[in-house]
From TrEMBL:
CDD domains: ArsA (cd02035). It comes from Amycolatopsis antarctica. Residues 16-290 form the ArsA/GET3 Anion-transporting ATPase-like domain. GO terms for molecular function: ATP binding; ATP hydrolysis activity. The lineage of its organism: Bacteria, Bacillati, Actinomycetota, Actinomycetes, Pseudonocardiales. Pfam families: ArsA_ATPase. This is ATPase.
Amino acid sequence: MAPVLDIDALIDSPETRVIVCCGSGGVGKTTTAAALALRAAERGRQTVVLTIDPARRLAQALGLRELGNHPRQVSVAGFEPKGELWAMMLDMRRTFDDMVQQHAGPERAQQLLQNPFYQTISTSFSGTQEYMAMEKLGQLAASGDWDLIIVDTPPSRSALDFLDAPNRLSTALDGRMIRLLTGPAKAGSWGLRKVVSAGVTMFAKAVSTIIGGQLLADASAFMQAFDSMFGGFRERARKTAELLRSPGTAFLVVAAPEPDALREASYFVERLSKESMPLSGLVANRTHPVLADLSAEEARSAADALERDGRSAPLATAVLRLHADRVALAEREKRLLERFTRAHGEVPVARVPALPSDVHDVTGLRDIGDRLATQEA
């Protein structure tokens, strides 16, 4: 049997500085992250929650009209935490723009921001969203304004994108074609510039027939302007990777008790272990525990008996059949979770029962937090 995940011990520990909620899409990561942040603030932590999910569920649940790219304090009726709760939603383009303005200098930053190639990659380059999430996490950690940062990771088909993004984006921007584009700017002498420029000219003629001359010119101008801040870009990616591996970071894998979600969770757990990432446990979300000590077979037999005897008890019959279906569902979920724990017996698990309706306010988030913290051994 898997050990029980002690949520309160995790969020109460001053050693815990970052909690990363990850998993496949549609399993309740955003709600879980918000509930953890709310509970941590109510227990005295100075907490900020960062969501990458563009949906407005987090803002609505926290009683806010909207969230922006900078933290906003949560202050609503009925919420008087011992600590503080701040929330924000990642704006990928704004974060990229802020990074350029901070590290490139006024003149160079203006060149970059107005470049058409930059305007394209800042919103659509593979890995940009995940990397900007990490860039924002680094900014929040460096500020020192909060003692607990909770991250709701991007909703991607593969949670591994989040871990790979810094290295993938750095490698792509340091690739062979990019180095050829920046070659003329890096050449140190007239002779070398002449040779490199001749090579790039031949390269440009070949590539421009495929992607278009203007796009190639924009890309070359972008990379020459970007080159001065590229070292800092890679250095921050390295620091981000170190932060994710530090003892103060805790990864929580969130999954629904469904085959695909648990398969993704299993793969992610293995990857975290391989990469020496600090995994704290699995949150099995939206489970369906049995509410009465009555087997599915007994419930169906009782319902059949009522119908066979001709007794007019349609409500009782319906409740019995509903209970039988609930037991069957609970047993299926139990088998799936047992399969996961057999493969990963050392991973602590917290089970969160499904609610009858969506969470849309602080009370609902508090209920989720209570359920996360109340686990049976």
